Automatic annotation (TrEMBL):
This is Class I SAM-dependent methyltransferase. It comes from the Bacteria. The keyword Cytoplasm does not apply. GO terms for molecular function: methyltransferase activity. Its EC number is 2.1.1.-.
Amino acid sequence: MKILKIAARHALVPLLYRYPPVGLQPERLQYYLRNIIEKKDIPGVVLEIGCNLAGTSIVAHNMMRRLGINKDYICIDTFGGFIPEQFEADRALGTPNVLSNMFSANGIGLVRKIINQHNCNDIKLVQKDCTKMNSADLGGKPISVCLLDVDLSEPVRLGLERIWPLVSPGGVVLVDDCPPSSDWKAKVGVEAFSKASGVSVSYLFGLAILEKPLNA
């Protein structure tokens, strides 16, 4: 079934994805884009972890191109949905099991086809569990802005442990799916990381905001 779904999406890309398939809520999207603009002079890549079908990536990348923000745009994703043991940890916290197969039919080939259709060929796609990412995945460059959108507590916590040392002074990490109440447990991972590391966190529009001081 999954293979058939991916094949159907491949065949219908020009029709289904005529417009970028953005999944990020509008208020969160505008805040992410605003941070990319405001952090344009902070050195480092723009990193999106958990890009699904790359609609947000396309919008952000094209905005950067129009505004002359010449930074690498990198997406890291499993391109196969959730890691089973990571989902199990959140199921034990109350995440409905029906959500376990979300994002499982967005293979890297399909995402590449969608972004190429929107003339974003230079977006770099990295197929990887974010809890295993490292500086080499970013070409050895630091991070200026990161959108971490992986929904689950453990990849958020462990992902932040990997990401935070790579963030430039003045850079920012935004974590999606952190409203006061949600089926997703991303906020649990944010709070665990913040408590263990001492990194302060604030919340706006359902995003967790972790900004590194300029003097860090």
